[in-house]
Write a structure and sequence with these properties.
Layout: H1 3-12, H2 26-42, E1 44-47, H3 56-66, E2 71-72, E3 75-77, E4 98-100, E5 102-105, H4 115-120, H5 123-132, E6 139-140, E7 148-153, E8 159-162, E9 169-175, E10 179-180, E11 183-186, H6 197-204, E12 213-215, E13 222-225, E14 231-234, E15 237-238, E16 243-248, E17 250-251, H7 260-267, H8 272-277
Antiparallel strand pairs: 1-13, 2-5, 3-4, 5-7, 6-17, 7-16, 8-14, 9-13, 9-16, 10-15, 11-12, 11-14
Length: 289
């Protein structure tokens, strides 16, 4: 563990509530146990005010300066990011289409001195995240675009219902919209054994209210989430202020690089590393993506 990591964590994180710098202490063990329990029971855990309040303005301003660098690509999608073609049965939820209007700033456009970048590469932070998800270790993505990114939802836009390709996700809200932009999710609506198309379709067509949970997130809140099996969305943003959130992408395996199609969809470009890795992806299950 780098000695500088503890000092950086102390500057950025509210270590009185979240003792990342003392990973052998009882307070740390209690925190990790609580997060694991919440992930087990609901697929999601939120750590309010994870970032020190004195650094939240800096966090917001840094991300706001790079927001104009985002790739914007409004498109028609479904919850699985597959082609909604005529080969799907009439009642298949993949036939329900939505308008995706969120945007992403890729990692190679996020300065290394920014708070979100410093946190992403911090070994104490990584150890904490791995422990919360019950892993002995995790790895930064080898992907120069998708490892760390800033997600932006502009007023009038939304990030519609979808499943993640990774089993887990970590995000940090950096800017709150004036209205809307609520994170909604359906805990474990599918499993490795079952797609549960009936419930998924019910939610997508405006029903299934009892399956949906909503979260009120504030700038500086850290969210740990199992998005592979829990369908989720960010509702339409209203007002004049965009919603910004940093996404920290890790994997249980080293050397992970995004697919060519997905990378081009999110960032509008691919790099030689994506072309070289094409066809070598390892699936964790046989679910639809």
């Amino acid at each position: 563990m780098r000695t500088s990591d503890a000092g950086l964590v102390g500057q950025l994180v509210d270590t009185a509530r979240y003792p990342l710098s003392a990973p052998t202490g009882t307070d740390w063990e209690y925190l990790v146990s609580r997060v694991r329990s919440e992930l087990q029971n609901s697929g999601c855990s939120v750590l309010p005010n994870f970032i020190r309040s004195s650094r939240c303005d800096e966090l917001r301003l840094e991300c706001a300066t790079i927001a104009p660098l985002a790739y914007y690509g409004v498109e028609t999608v479904n919850a699985y990011n597959i082609t909604p073609d005529a080969s799907l049965p009439e009642d298949h939820p993949g036939r329900v289409t939505m308008r995706r209007g969120n945007a992403f700033v890729a990692r190679d456009r996020i300065p290394e001195n920014f708070i979100i970048h410093q946190l992403y590469v911090n070994e104490l932070f990584q150890h904490f995240i791995a422990s919360c998800f019950g892993m002995s270790c995790l790895y930064e993505l080898a992907d120069s675009l998708a490892g760390l990114c800033l997600n932006i939802v502009m007023p009038g836009m939304e990030h519609p219902w979808h499943f993640d390709t990774n089993e887990f996700a970590v995000s940090l809200l950096t800017q709150e919209p004036q209205a809307g932009g609520v994170f909604e999710y359906c805990p474990d609506i599918r499993s490795v054994q079952s797609e549960n198309f009936a419930d998924v379709r019910a939610v997508l067509t405006g029903g299934g209210e009892q399956l949906i949970r909503s979260l009120s997130l504030r700038p500086g809140d850290l969210q740990l989430f199992k998005g592979r099996y829990s369908m989720h969305r960010v509702s339409s943003v209203r007002g004049e202020t965009a919603r910004h959130s940093a996404i920290f992408a890790y994997s249980e395996r080293s050397g992970v690089v995004g697919s060519v199609a997905r990378t081009r969809q999110l960032f509008g470009r691919v790099l030689p590393q994506h072309l070289a890795a094409a066809g070598r992806a390892v699936r964790v299950d046989q679910l639809l993506d």
